[in-house]
Design a protein that fits this description.
This protein is an alpha+beta fold. The protein is built from 30 helices and 20 strands. The protein has five domains: 188 residues, Hypothetical protein af1432, CATH 1.10.3210.10; 133 residues, 2-Layer Sandwich (Beta Polymerase, domain 2); 119 residues, Roll (Ubiquitin-like (UB roll)); 158 residues, no CATH class; 76 residues, 2-Layer Sandwich (Alpha-Beta Plaits). The chain is 49% helix and 16% strand. Helix 4 packs across helix 7, helix 4 crosses helix 9 and helix 12 crosses helix 14. The structure holds manganese (II) ion (MN). Manganese (II) ion (MN) binds next to loops.
Length: 726
């Protein structure tokens, strides 16, 4: 284990401004807090945070990161509190320790490796400071290095799998390839020990066959380059067992065919030299087509820069080459950590400082800290990161990824369509909230369901995802279809009943045959929609009715209210009840029928039934199309209030208006609109829209208004174009 002074010396060696006192205090604090806790290896527990700190000194991280590494397990594993760390080491370090602790807690709920990609994104998104992520990765690396001490097979395997699925790719994502390769190889040793041993055997065979090949090729390449006046360093290295294994899997090659095991890095003095070196190598050796890539002019998102090529080298051996400057080499190995180390040295290392992703990551971290929207920034840079998504959990710990701006209702639909459809509310982190609440990273969402719940038309406004929107529309359409069918069924039954017939059995089967319908449902649907009339169905089964059509029309006309003539035949009555008063039965625009009024339904193509007051003049236009008319009656107790309108002429003096509105208020009617025209000094014309229960309610209110002595006239408006100047 690294001693206290060794650690502090190492930090000071690369960072002369390091706060040695703080590092010493953090070291002592960690050893005291972890006390005699032990690791699986039998070592004192505090050796772990010290080793993690040591790993981070290899990355040349700053004082705060090293102190965070020393303290990273104190909140989780000892009595230490956030306040205590803040008091002793300041807010920055306390926040970072807290961040690492939070990540460790997330770890516990993420057994599902199928969600690894989402989980990686969540880790990045919740790391408000990229250094937290670096500490976490170093923590995992040390735990993997000491994995073999853990006795439980199952636990070792789980940790290794999680490392392979989540942490190794995450290290790669932020450009830390050394971390990535070591994490992968340590996991590989646990997950597929046999495969790793086979690869190792083959590697040692190859090494025996051509023991000096690495140096041979390195020498040949550097000689060739120095002839052209290029000063370079060539590093040859054997690939790690896991990356060789992966290549074998991806390209389906056998162990015997395996030869592509060496990679060479050529480190040059300048960016120009990279291209010159490439030119020399391509002239000297045959190059493999399709393998050249220029990541210098177009760096990878994580800041990686290099020229890649493959040539057929000495001894006819394929040789993979990566050509880059010293700084690029550093970034390739240490990724973001290198950017971090160089951040105060822009003058000395302009190559690094100019790399966009560095600034970009910095900005992202800043924005995450201040809570500003990162979206705008991302749109400008057109770079991929995960700030366009939110990651939330089900109560059982399943992770769901949604686009930013998604609501709890989106979440419900993402879990399952049936859950979305029956959602009546949500608990977010235990708190009951409306289901249109916007989600934040790490929210835990419990969906409250209601058995009789059904999606409403306005739900579409409360969701962001296409899946939820499509599911809501689908459900609304399905329900509308069901309502149209029920309406069609009632219309047919009512009309048949009016003729003394029962709409059932053979009678309806005959109708289906005559009208070429495949099913009763489809017939009812078309009648309900108004595409065909119920009278058509009646005439299909009783052609003789055709002769009596005028009588039938007469029955309908009786309903219109203008005719005093009553027929002996009963009119077809369609109750305007709660079940149907919805998508398929609508009140006519510009008309104000109220419960208690005589009403008539007009079957309107594609819209179902539109309800008019029987006294509306437009109904008279339909006298010669009785098949479109449906008699209707109000439900016994309508549950809603109905729109209505009163027209009045009021005395033009102070207080008139308030007396009128007070009178209306006394009747518990809602005023929804009020307009007036002053047409003389003494009087003004008022139009008041009010919501009332029924005709009786309306009549009593009008009587009261008339009695108020501030109006000379008050009348109910039945339809908008009603004319009062009689
Ligand atoms: Mn730890």
């Amino acid at each position: 284990m690294m001693r206290q002074y060794e650690l502090v010396d190492r930090v000071s060696s690369y960072d002369p401004s390091a706060n040695e006192d703080l590092l010493n205090r953090a070291y002592v604090f960690a050893t005291q807090k972890h006390g005699d806790q032990k690791r699986a290896s039998g070592d004192p527990y505090y050796s772990h945070p010290v080793e993690v700190a040591g790993i981070l000194t290899d990355l040349h991280l700053d004082t705060a990161s090293i102190a965070t590494a020393l303290l990273h397990d104190t909140i989780e594993d000892t009595e230490t509190t956030f306040a205590e760390i803040e008091g002793l080491f300041g807010r920055e370090i306390a926040d970072m320790v807290n961040g690492v602790t939070k990540m460790s807690l997330l770890e516990l709920s993420s057994a599902d490796t199928a969600q690894a990609e989402n989980f990686r994104k969540l880790l990045v998104a919740t790391a408000s400071d990229i250094r937290i992520l670096l500490v976490k990765l170093a923590d995992r690396l040390h735990n993997m290095r000491t994995l073999h001490f853990i006795k439980s097979d199952e636990k070792r395997r789980r940790i290794a799998q999680e490392t392979m699925d989540i942490y190794a790719p995450l290290a790669g994502r932020i450009g830390m390839h050394n971390f990535r390769e070591e994490l992968e190889d340590l996991s590989f040793a646990e997950i597929n020990k046999d495969a790793r041993e086979l690869v190792m055997e083959r590697l040692s065979e190859l090494n025996e066959q051509s023991s000096d090949m690495l140096t041979e090729i390195s020498d040949a390449v550097s000689t060739e380059l120095s002839k052209q006046g290029l000063e370079v360093e060539v590093y040859g290295r054997q690939k790690r067992p896991f990356s060789i294994w992966r290549k074998m899997q991806n390209k389906s090659i056998s162990l015997e065919q395996l030869s592509d095991i060496f990679a060479y890095r050529i480190v040059t003095q300048s960016e120009d030299d990279c291209y010159r070196a490439l030119g020399v190598l391509h002239r000297t050796y045959r190059f493999v087509p399709g393998r050249y890539k220029d990541f210098i002019s177009t760096p990878k998102i994580n800041g990686y820069q290099s020229l890649h090529t493959t040539v057929i080298g000495p001894n006819n051996q394929r040789v993979e080459l990566q050509i880059r400057t010293r700084e690029m080499h550093d970034v390739a190995n240490r990724g973001i950590a290198a950017h971090w180390a160089y951040k105060d040295q822009q003058d000395e290392h302009p190559d690094i400082a100019k790399i966009e992703p560095f600034n970009w990551l910095q900005d992202m971290v800043e924005q995450l800290k201040t809570g500003e929207t990162a979206e705008e920034f991302l749109e400008n840079t057109k770079l991929e990161l995960f700030t366009d998504q939110v990651f939330c959990f089900t109560p059982k710990g399943r992770l769901i990824a949604l686009p930013r701006g998604a609501t709890a209702l989106d979440f419900a639909y993402a879990v399952h369509t049936a859950i979305g459809n029956s959602c009546i509310g949500v608990r977010i982190n235990g708190l009951k909230l409306p289901f249109r609440t916007l989600l934040k990273n790490g929210d835990e969402i419990e969906i409250i369901r209601g058995e009789s719940q059904k999606p409403m038309a306005n739900w579409v406004n409360h969701v962001q995802t296409g899946k939820a929107r499509a599911a809501i529309r689908h459900s609304l359409r399905e329900r509308e279809t069901a309502e149209f069918m029920a309406l069609g069924e009632q219309m047919i039954e009512s009309l048949f009943a009016a003729e003394g017939l029962a709409a059932e059995g053979t009678l309806l089967e005959r109708a289906l045959g005559v009208m070429h319908y495949e099913s009763l449902d489809l017939l009812r649907l078309d009648v309900g929609r108004g595409d065909i009339s119920a009278a058509d169905v009646l005439l299909a089964v009783m052609p003789k009715k055709r002769r009596r059509r005028s009588m039938f029309a007469g029955a309908m006309r009786g309903l219109i209210g203008r005719s005093s003539q009553r027929t002996t035949s009963h009119p077809a009555i369609l109750p305007l009840n709660g079940a149907l008063y919805g998508a398929v039965v609508k009140i006519a625009e510009d008309h104000f029928p109220l419960p208690g009024d005589e009403i008539v339904g007009v079957v309107t193509m594609g819209q179902g039934v539109v309800v008019y007051p029987a006294s509306a003049p437009d109904i008279l236009d339909l006298e010669d199309k009785p098949e479109r008319l449906v008699a209707m009656k109000w439900d016994e107790k309508p549950e809603t209030l109905f729109a209505s309108r009163i027209h009045m002429t009021a005395v033009n003096r102070t207080g008139s208006l308030s007396i009128i509105t007070q009178t209306i208020a006394d009747f518990d009617a809602n005023i929804t609109n009020l307009s007036f025209i002053q047409d003389s000094d003494d009087f003004c014309d008022l139009t008041v829209d009010v919501e009332v229960r029924d005709v009786e309610h309306m009549d009593q209110m009008i009587d009261a208004i008339r009695g108020s002595r501030v109006v000379s006239e008050a009348n109910r408006v039945i339809f908008k174009k009603q004319n009062f100047e009689t």
